[in-house]
Amino acid sequence: MVRWFKQHWSGKKPPRPVVTGVGIVSPIGTGQDAFWAALLAGRTGVRKISLFDATHYPTRIAAEVPDLDEWEEKLLSARQRNHFSRAARMALIAYKLAHVDSGLREFDPFRTAVVTGSASIAFEVLEEQIRRSSSALLDFSQGEMEPLSMLRTVMSAPTNAIALDAGIEGYSTTVTNACASALSAIALGADRIRRDEAEVVIAGGVDAPITPIVLNAHCAARLLTTNNEDPETVLEPFDMRRTKPVLGEGSAYLILEDRERALARGARIYAEIGGYAQMQENMNEIFPMDRSGSKWAACLKAAGTEGVSHISAHGPSDRIIDRTENLALKTAFGERAQSLFITSIKGAVGSGMASASALQVAAAVLSLKHQMIPPIYNYKEPDPECDLRYIPEAMSARIKTILLSSHGLGGINCALRVSGA
Q1: 3-class DSSP state for residue 261?
Q2: Per-residue pLDDT reduced to its tens digit, 343-365
């Protein structure tokens, strides 16, 4: 804060947070080139669950990362592969790819921050203990609990893994806002740059929720589709045929720097991180949502609608949520809503909690880089109640500012502006 006041009164330009590195681990490809090519081509990562036997579950499909083992062998040490959770390993790979992409050689340990968005603990670690001996979780006298299980399970494990690998000794934190966690984490990271509290921020999100416990809970709550016969056509955000989402997983991290610093070192700048808003709906329901869209709209307006031409929508392929988001956009933008280009990537990557919003930000950054809008996967039959301009095929467009929209389980709405820099 002291640094910020010194800059403010000295007349020096305030720091502007820009993206100089992008790293992606996703169900449709790892690395930004593979991910972006699959998005534009309209491919999906939804397939039969292979991580465990899901035969007896109502939902037997999900969007898994298919090539994780291959990337672990390339980029992680044996110790990292053996001792970190699946989510922490994904986060490490995404961070390493972003680091290389940024062109930075090393980080100042006290002027670099790590901010991760994550919505769940590493349930697979608990499940491993249960398979070994269910009593080991509750009874110390059994002597079967793995000593490192607590460290592997905690939600901050991905942040800790990155900080350790990067040699960071300063600020690091984990943000949890359900599906919108990564938007919140990246916004918080951008604020560290604006306040001159860090010169570099490693910011992103990760979740690996495709486990028996999480699938069982989602199925019990009837949150997922039970149409298992044709995984490639089951997700249709904003389409009349849509039913419900499927689980996904993955990770994306960005390297954030001040614009002037990035230009001085000749870095490639992808985008600038702009306004952010987060609001709680505070509805008296088990799964709260204001179906009028007014509370969601207030969040979008608070982030800033001026100059926005493209919306990266939450769009999970859920009848109620998709229609509510449509209403929110119409309320927030008024007559301008009809001219917006709207897409959602969840038909490709599933609903992976924090991973979904992390991949959403990465896709928006790449849209600005390539001046292309990826299509809504499998969008063919417009829903009359989703009556805005939804994009069925990849299209080129002059994009200056994208507004990202996200809704988290429990009634959390988040919105983030990303602009060309």
Answers
A1: helix
A2: 999 999 999 889 999 999 999 99
Round to whole Å and give the CA distance between 391 and 212. 34
Distances (CA, A) of 262 to 152, 220, 369, 406: 35, 48, 16, 29
C-alpha distances in Å from residue 259, one per residue of 73, 190, 266, 279: 34, 11, 11, 29
> Rounded to 5 degrees, what are φ and ψ at 283?
-95, 145
Question: From start to end of 50-138, where are the E strands?
Answer: 61-63, 112-117
Please tell me the distance from the alpha carbon of residue 404 to that of residue 401, in angstroms, as a whole number.
10
254 by DSSP, 3-state: which? strand
Q: How confident is the model at residue 29 (pLDDT cuts 50, 70, 90)?
A: very high
Residues 316-345 have pLDDT tens digits of: 999 999 999 999 999 999 999 999 999 999
Domain borders along the chain are 2-264, 273-419
DSSP 167-212: T--S-EEEE-BTBTHHHHHHHHHHHHHHTTS-SEEEEEEEE---SH
Instruction: Determine the 3-state secondary structure of 240 from DSSP.
Output: coil
Going from the C-alpha of 253 to that of each of 21, 53, 117, 204, 285, the distances in angstroms are 8, 30, 10, 4, 34
Q: What is the mean pLDDT of residues 277-286?
A: 78
Q: Which CATH class is domain 273-419?
A: alpha beta
- The fraction of the chain above a pLDDT of 90, given in percent, is 81
Least confident range of 53-62, 126-135, 354-363, 389-398: 126-135
294 burial via Cβ count (<10 Å: 0-12, 13-18, 19+) = middle
When pLDDT is averaged across residues 394-412 and rounded to a whole number, the result is: 93
CA gap 342, 338 in Å, rounded: 10
> What are the C-alpha distances in Å from 209 to residues 63, 194, 195, 347, 392?
10, 33, 34, 17, 28
Per-residue pLDDT of 236-260, as tens digits, reads: 999 999 989 999 999 999 999 999 9
CATH number of 2-264: 3.40.47.10
Q: Which helix (H) or strand (E) holds 244?
A: none
What pLDDT sits at residue 287? 62
